[in-house]
Specification:
Layout lengths: L9 H4 L11 E6 L14 H10 L4 E3 L5 E3 L2 E6 L6 E6 L13 H11 L13 E8 L2 E6 L18 H6 L15 H4 L7 E7 L3 E6 L15 E6 L3 H10 L4 E2 L7 H6 L3 E16 L20 H10 L2 H8 L4 E3 L13 H4 L6 H10 L6 E8 L6 H13 L3 E8 L1 H9 L5 E7 L5 H9 L17 H9 L6 H18 L2 E14 L2 E2 L14 E2 L1
Parallel strand pairs: 1-10, 1-11, 14-15
Antiparallel strand pairs: 2-3, 4-5, 5-7, 6-7, 8-9, 9-10, 11-17, 12-16, 12-17, 13-17, 18-19
Helix pairs in contact: 8-11
């Protein structure tokens, strides 16, 4: 058993060795902060991006999107039992406090991530047991052979079990319930950077881990990270232009030309593995945030289709996004297994047909409803919502927009307190099962934690669950296509567009813009 250790002192955190490159500080900014440091509490992009600097997973994706070794060096199905995945762990790895990493930490972390308050439980829904037969072997037992289990682990961070026990952090933070815990503001990982200080929504400081196992395998030229959330777009750009920050992850579309033209600065662009869309409460008998008494207009598929037809995605692309988006007809990015070109091209604007559908559904005079939208999470999120308000007005739907920071927006979905909302979804597994588990399956203790539509379909739920153990990939793909057809026919969501990444940085910062929008700073080179 490992011995419990006390909280690391600042003096230890700031120590460095000659094995690291000369000191290079990266001043990194983006619109929103990580929601928490608890690695299993919030499955949210900026939260994971910061966590990846401090903590690690069994496997990770490289710049090309391929799965590569991290805390596991080898993995594969057991030859003795097809229901078991076997992972061989990296030896000689230590946590930032010096404690040794071993299989008990992995077992603890995966079991923790399977609990009710975890925002990652859908990824482990098929797991029936995690075994640690020795210090450097992990066996993940699934309910039937799971062909994509390693894909589900790229954001499954590993905690130090002893540290968690010593600091009352065994339980996952109930983020939606407003709980604050030690793990929400402190971290002890095996990653390339160690936490020095954390001021939520203000600044987080990290320094290089002088004992990192990857020294010699990765550039590790950044030895200090100062991470600052800057919600205001103009202020964020001004910080880059003035040299106050070196790297911003979300250059506003209206400032792309200005930043690109500045001597010593670059804008680097790539398609993102993320779709932006609207969700609708189609399951409740009545809505709280509309003016229709005793009925739910969103429960009628004709109304949902009318709303879909009212959105002019090309206008959003040209006017709001300045060309920096790709209109979407399904809530899957092109990177993902199950994406269908015809479905994705199916979005269209037809106000005449939309009005006909509204009349057929009994809402010729329209209705009013509240749209909940974040204002610091996606590119031009509030502006997209504002544009959509005007578009929906053309078919008689009066939309009252309520935009707020993501820290207040996302709990509305988790707590089922919104009827009409914006959400963006990336797919780190590169497989449609991820989308279905979180967004389509009815909400229960294992699935649907981001499904605020209240939609559930027993037959569809069973088909979704069956994907986890279907090793006949051709048959599995056919099931995925069938599930997508239901999603499209039911108009569960209103797809808007595929997001485009625009990273702005000093010309001397050398990195690759990845589809995941999750910078791997250990790969950065500072020229």
């Amino acid at each position: 058993m490992k011995l419990a250790t006390s909280v690391i002192t600042a003096a230890v955190l700031l120590s460095t060795t000659a094995t690291l490159a000369s000191a290079e500080t990266l001043r990194w900014a983006r619109a929103g902060d990580a929601l928490t440091l608890d690695p299993h509490a919030q499955n949210e992009g900026p939260t994971s991006a910061l966590a990846h600097q401090i903590m690690e997973t069994l496997v990770m994706r490289d710049h090309s999107g391929a799965l590569v070794a991290s805390l596991a060096t080898e993995w594969g199905p057991s030859e003795a039992d097809p229901n078991v995945w076997v992972f061989t762990l990296r030896e000689g790895v230590t946590y930032h406090d010096g404690s040794a990493f071993d299989s008990e930490d992995v077992k603890f972390s995966l079991e923790r991530a399977m609990t009710a308050d975890s925002d990652y439980k859908e990824l482990l829904a098929s797991v029936v047991e995690v075994r640690a037969p020795d210090a450097y072997t992990i066996e993940i037992v699934t309910d039937g052979p799971n062909p994509i289990m390693p894909n589900n682990l790229t954001n499954m961070f590993i905690m130090d079990k002893t540290w968690a026990e010593a600091n009352n952090a065994v339980k996952v933070q109930d983020y939606e319930g407003g709980e604050d815990t030690f793990a929400a503001k402190n971290a002890n990982g095996t990653g390339p950077y160690k936490l020095v200080s954390r001021e939520p929504d203000v600044k987080t400081v990290l320094v290089a881990n002088e004992n990192y196992w990857g020294i010699g395998e990765f550039p590790l030229e950044v030895t200090e990270i100062i991470y600052t959330p800057i919600q205001n777009a103009a202020t964020r750009v001004a910080a880059l232009l003035s040299g106050e920050v070196d790297f911003i992850q979300d250059v506003p579309v209206q400032d792309l030309g200005r930043v690109a033209a500045e001597d010593g600065l670059d804008v680097r662009t790539a398609p993102q593995n993320r779709v932006i869309f609207f969700g609708m409460n189609s399951g409740d008998a009545d809505l709280k945030n509309d003016n229709v008494e005793g009925a739910n207009p969103l429960a009628d598929v004709r109304v949902r289709e009318a709303m879909n037809l009212a959105i002019n995605r090309d206008a959003i692309k040209q006017v709001v996004m300045r060309g920096q988006s790709a209109p979407a007809g399904m809530i899957a990015p092109p990177f993902v297994n199950g994406w269908d070109a015809d479905m994705d091209a199916s979005s269209s604007t037809d106000l005449e047909r939309a009005r006909e559908l509204m009349a057929e559904a009994g809402y010729a005079d329209g209705f009013s409803i509240q749209l909940d939208c974040p204002n610091d999470r996606y590119v031009n999120d509030e502006a997209i919502c504002q544009a959509s308000v005007g578009m929906l007005a053309q078919i008689g739907i009066t939309v009252n927009l309520d935009a707020k920071p993501k820290a207040q927006h996302f709990p509305l979905l988790s707590n089922l307190e919104t009827d009409f909302y914006m959400l963006g979804w990336g797919v780190p597994t590169y497989d449609s099962e991820y989308i279905f588990n979180f967004l389509v399956h009815g909400r229960d203790d294992k699935y649907g934690s981001w499904n605020a539509t209240r939609y559930t379909n027993d037959d569809l739920n069973a088909k979704i669950q069956g994907l986890a153990s279907n090793t006949d990939l051709e048959a599995r793909d056919a099931d995925i296509a069938a599930i997508w057809q239901v999603v499209q026919d039911e108009k569960l969501y209103i797809p808007l567009h595929h997001q485009v990444l625009n990273w702005g940085m000093k010309s001397g910062v050398d990195t690759v813009v990845e589809a995941e929008d999750s910078p791997k700073i250990k790969y950065f080179r500072m020229n």
